[in-house]
Design brief:
It contains 8 helices and 4 strands, in the order βαβαβααβαααα. With 198 residues, it is α/β, with parallel strands linked by helices. Helix 1 links the parallel strand 1 and strand 2.
Length: 198
Protein backbone atom coordinates (compact mmCIF):
# COMPACT_ATOMS: atom_id res chain seq x y z
CA UNK A 1 0.00 0.00 0.00
CA UNK A 2 1.50 3.33 -1.05
CA UNK A 3 2.40 5.91 1.56
CA UNK A 4 2.68 9.67 1.28
CA UNK A 5 5.79 11.42 2.60
CA UNK A 6 6.83 15.02 2.89
CA UNK A 7 10.23 16.65 2.94
CA UNK A 8 11.02 20.00 4.55
CA UNK A 9 14.34 21.85 4.45
CA UNK A 10 15.52 25.16 5.84
CA UNK A 11 19.11 26.35 5.48
CA UNK A 12 19.67 27.80 8.95
CA UNK A 13 18.37 27.46 12.51
CA UNK A 14 16.87 30.96 12.24
CA UNK A 15 14.66 30.07 9.28
CA UNK A 16 11.12 28.90 9.91
CA UNK A 17 9.75 25.73 8.37
CA UNK A 18 6.08 26.45 9.21
CA UNK A 19 5.16 27.54 5.68
CA UNK A 20 6.36 24.22 4.27
CA UNK A 21 4.68 22.17 7.00
CA UNK A 22 1.35 24.00 6.51
CA UNK A 23 1.51 23.21 2.77
CA UNK A 24 2.19 19.53 3.48
CA UNK A 25 -0.58 19.43 6.07
CA UNK A 26 -3.01 20.77 3.43
CA UNK A 27 -2.02 17.75 1.29
CA UNK A 28 -2.85 15.41 4.21
CA UNK A 29 0.73 14.20 4.64
CA UNK A 30 0.83 12.35 7.98
CA UNK A 31 3.00 14.23 10.48
CA UNK A 32 5.02 11.09 11.23
CA UNK A 33 5.88 10.86 7.51
CA UNK A 34 7.41 14.34 7.30
CA UNK A 35 11.21 14.43 7.32
CA UNK A 36 12.98 17.74 7.97
CA UNK A 37 16.58 18.94 7.69
CA UNK A 38 18.09 22.21 8.90
CA UNK A 39 20.92 22.23 6.45
CA UNK A 40 22.11 23.81 3.23
CA UNK A 41 20.70 22.48 -0.02
CA UNK A 42 24.19 22.46 -1.52
CA UNK A 43 24.20 18.64 -1.70
CA UNK A 44 22.06 15.66 -0.73
CA UNK A 45 24.26 14.47 2.13
CA UNK A 46 21.58 15.35 4.71
CA UNK A 47 20.66 12.88 7.48
CA UNK A 48 16.85 13.14 7.35
CA UNK A 49 16.74 13.23 3.55
CA UNK A 50 18.86 10.07 3.40
CA UNK A 51 16.61 8.39 5.98
CA UNK A 52 13.56 9.40 3.93
CA UNK A 53 15.00 7.86 0.75
CA UNK A 54 15.77 4.60 2.60
CA UNK A 55 12.21 4.56 4.03
CA UNK A 56 10.30 5.05 0.77
CA UNK A 57 9.18 2.12 -1.36
CA UNK A 58 7.87 1.71 -4.89
CA UNK A 59 4.66 3.71 -5.61
CA UNK A 60 5.07 5.89 -2.50
CA UNK A 61 4.61 9.64 -3.02
CA UNK A 62 7.07 12.35 -1.97
CA UNK A 63 5.67 15.89 -1.63
CA UNK A 64 7.81 19.03 -1.36
CA UNK A 65 6.70 22.67 -1.27
CA UNK A 66 9.16 23.85 -3.94
CA UNK A 67 12.04 22.46 -5.97
CA UNK A 68 14.65 24.45 -4.05
CA UNK A 69 13.59 22.68 -0.82
CA UNK A 70 14.73 19.47 -2.44
CA UNK A 71 18.11 20.97 -3.29
CA UNK A 72 20.01 23.82 -4.93
CA UNK A 73 22.55 22.06 -7.12
CA UNK A 74 21.20 21.74 -10.68
CA UNK A 75 22.94 18.50 -11.61
CA UNK A 76 22.33 16.81 -8.25
CA UNK A 77 18.60 17.66 -8.26
CA UNK A 78 18.22 16.00 -11.67
CA UNK A 79 20.27 13.00 -10.54
CA UNK A 80 18.15 12.61 -7.37
CA UNK A 81 14.91 13.08 -9.33
CA UNK A 82 15.88 10.32 -11.74
CA UNK A 83 17.02 8.04 -8.92
CA UNK A 84 13.76 8.49 -7.01
CA UNK A 85 11.44 8.17 -10.01
CA UNK A 86 13.26 5.51 -12.00
CA UNK A 87 15.18 3.39 -9.49
CA UNK A 88 13.05 3.72 -6.34
CA UNK A 89 9.94 4.18 -8.58
CA UNK A 90 8.55 6.84 -6.25
CA UNK A 91 6.24 9.64 -7.40
CA UNK A 92 7.28 13.24 -6.69
CA UNK A 93 4.95 16.21 -6.30
CA UNK A 94 6.28 19.80 -6.20
CA UNK A 95 3.41 21.91 -4.86
CA UNK A 96 4.61 25.27 -6.23
CA UNK A 97 4.89 23.81 -9.73
CA UNK A 98 1.91 21.61 -10.73
CA UNK A 99 3.74 20.46 -13.89
CA UNK A 100 6.18 18.67 -11.60
CA UNK A 101 3.79 15.94 -10.49
CA UNK A 102 4.88 12.52 -11.71
CA UNK A 103 1.52 10.97 -10.75
CA UNK A 104 0.10 12.60 -13.88
CA UNK A 105 1.02 11.66 -17.39
CA UNK A 106 2.69 8.33 -16.72
CA UNK A 107 3.12 7.99 -20.48
CA UNK A 108 6.27 8.94 -22.37
CA UNK A 109 5.06 12.50 -23.10
CA UNK A 110 4.24 13.14 -19.42
CA UNK A 111 7.68 11.92 -18.35
CA UNK A 112 9.35 13.99 -21.08
CA UNK A 113 7.49 17.17 -20.06
CA UNK A 114 8.24 16.60 -16.39
CA UNK A 115 11.96 16.14 -17.15
CA UNK A 116 12.12 19.32 -19.25
CA UNK A 117 10.34 21.42 -16.60
CA UNK A 118 12.60 19.96 -13.90
CA UNK A 119 15.74 20.83 -15.86
CA UNK A 120 14.57 24.39 -16.49
CA UNK A 121 13.58 24.95 -12.85
CA UNK A 122 16.77 23.39 -11.51
CA UNK A 123 18.81 25.60 -13.82
CA UNK A 124 16.90 28.69 -12.64
CA UNK A 125 17.37 27.73 -8.96
CA UNK A 126 21.13 27.22 -9.39
CA UNK A 127 21.49 30.38 -11.47
CA UNK A 128 19.76 32.40 -8.74
CA UNK A 129 22.10 30.91 -6.13
CA UNK A 130 25.12 31.96 -8.23
CA UNK A 131 23.63 35.44 -8.67
CA UNK A 132 23.15 35.82 -4.90
CA UNK A 133 26.79 34.84 -4.30
CA UNK A 134 27.95 37.31 -6.95
CA UNK A 135 25.83 40.11 -5.45
CA UNK A 136 27.27 39.33 -1.99
CA UNK A 137 30.83 39.43 -3.36
CA UNK A 138 30.15 42.75 -5.14
CA UNK A 139 28.59 44.18 -1.97
CA UNK A 140 31.61 43.20 0.13
CA UNK A 141 34.00 44.70 -2.43
CA UNK A 142 32.01 47.96 -2.54
CA UNK A 143 31.98 48.12 1.28
CA UNK A 144 35.75 47.56 1.43
CA UNK A 145 36.27 50.40 -1.07
CA UNK A 146 34.22 52.65 1.22
CA UNK A 147 36.58 51.76 4.07
CA UNK A 148 34.29 49.31 5.90
CA UNK A 149 36.37 46.89 7.98
CA UNK A 150 35.27 43.27 8.24
CA UNK A 151 35.97 40.93 11.14
CA UNK A 152 36.30 41.68 14.81
CA UNK A 153 37.71 45.09 15.73
CA UNK A 154 41.21 45.09 17.23
CA UNK A 155 41.30 45.24 21.03
CA UNK A 156 43.50 48.11 22.19
CA UNK A 157 46.80 46.93 23.71
CA UNK A 158 46.66 47.36 27.53
CA UNK A 159 49.09 49.88 29.01
CA UNK A 160 50.81 47.22 31.12
CA UNK A 161 51.12 44.72 28.24
CA UNK A 162 54.89 45.21 27.66
CA UNK A 163 55.70 44.56 31.30
CA UNK A 164 53.35 41.55 31.59
CA UNK A 165 54.55 40.16 28.26
CA UNK A 166 58.19 40.30 29.45
CA UNK A 167 57.32 38.51 32.70
CA UNK A 168 55.33 35.88 30.76
CA UNK A 169 58.28 35.34 28.36
CA UNK A 170 60.56 34.82 31.40
CA UNK A 171 58.03 32.20 32.60
CA UNK A 172 57.25 34.15 35.77
CA UNK A 173 53.56 33.61 35.08
CA UNK A 174 51.36 31.51 32.85
CA UNK A 175 49.10 32.76 30.05
CA UNK A 176 45.99 32.80 32.21
CA UNK A 177 47.64 34.97 34.85
CA UNK A 178 49.11 37.28 32.19
CA UNK A 179 45.72 37.73 30.54
CA UNK A 180 44.08 38.49 33.90
CA UNK A 181 46.73 41.10 34.74
CA UNK A 182 46.08 42.79 31.39
CA UNK A 183 42.29 42.55 31.79
CA UNK A 184 41.84 40.65 28.52
CA UNK A 185 40.94 37.09 27.52
CA UNK A 186 43.62 34.43 27.11
CA UNK A 187 42.99 34.19 23.36
CA UNK A 188 43.41 37.98 23.01
CA UNK A 189 46.61 37.86 25.09
CA UNK A 190 48.07 35.10 22.91
CA UNK A 191 47.03 36.94 19.73
CA UNK A 192 48.80 40.11 20.94
CA UNK A 193 51.82 38.10 22.11
CA UNK A 194 52.06 36.46 18.69
CA UNK A 195 52.21 39.92 17.07
CA UNK A 196 55.01 40.93 19.47
CA UNK A 197 57.00 37.74 18.82
CA UNK A 198 56.30 37.62 15.08
Amino acid sequence: MKKVYGYVRVSTREQNEDRQRIALDAENVPKENIFADRQSGRDFNRPMYRKLVRTMNQDDVLIVKSIDRLGRNYEEIIEQWRYLTRVKKVDIVVLDMPLLDTRRGKNLLGTFLSDIVLQVLSFVAENERKNIRERQREGIEAAKQRGVKFGRPNTPVPENFDEVFDRWMRKEMNGKEAAQMCGITMSTFYRMAKRYVG
